[in-house]
Amino acid sequence: MSGCKETTRCEIQMDFRVGGSFTQKMQIAGKGEFTFTGKYDEIVVPERIVYHADFGFAVMRVMVEFFEQNGQTKVVLGALGYRSREVFVWETSLRHESFDKLDSILAGEAHVSR
């Protein structure tokens, strides 16, 4: 499951191609539903994905880069368009929670429902 640690449900619709769009809906415990949309600007397999994400309060340019490192894949995520330092700190903490979830899934420690 994608999203921060409090995400209880996540639905993603995507047209994964340059110019394609996506919508991600997450149910967050105690907070309700959070939806954001985006559009893919660049896809270079297996190197990088660049997209614009509209969170409602801000539109951000996000770049995800993939590097081979010692037989594993290193993922580097960057974003431009933060409105304030507080939003940067909040979003960074959510990003870390999402990567922690991904680590658990890849290690076989988390249940993934489809």
Average pLDDT reading: 86
Helical run tally: 1
Number of domains: 1
From the helix content, strand content and strand pairing, which structural class follows? alpha+beta
Distance between the termini: 9 Å
Can you list the strand order of the major beta sheet?
1-2-3-4-5-6
Assigned CATH class: Alpha Beta
Determine the fraction of residues in helical runs and give it as a percent range. 10-25%
Q: Major beta sheet, specifics?
A: 6 strands, antiparallel
Low-confidence stretches: none
Q: Can you write the helix and strand succession as a string?
A: EEEEEEH
Please report which band the strand proportion falls in: under 5%, 5-15%, 15-25%, 25-35%, 35-45% or over 45%.
over 45%
Number of beta strands: 6
C-alpha-based Rg, rounded: 15 Å
CATH architecture: 2-Layer Sandwich
Q: State the CATH topology.
A: Alpha-D-Glucose-1,6-Bisphosphate, Chain A, domain 4
The coarse overall form would be globular
| CATH homologous superfamily caption | START domain
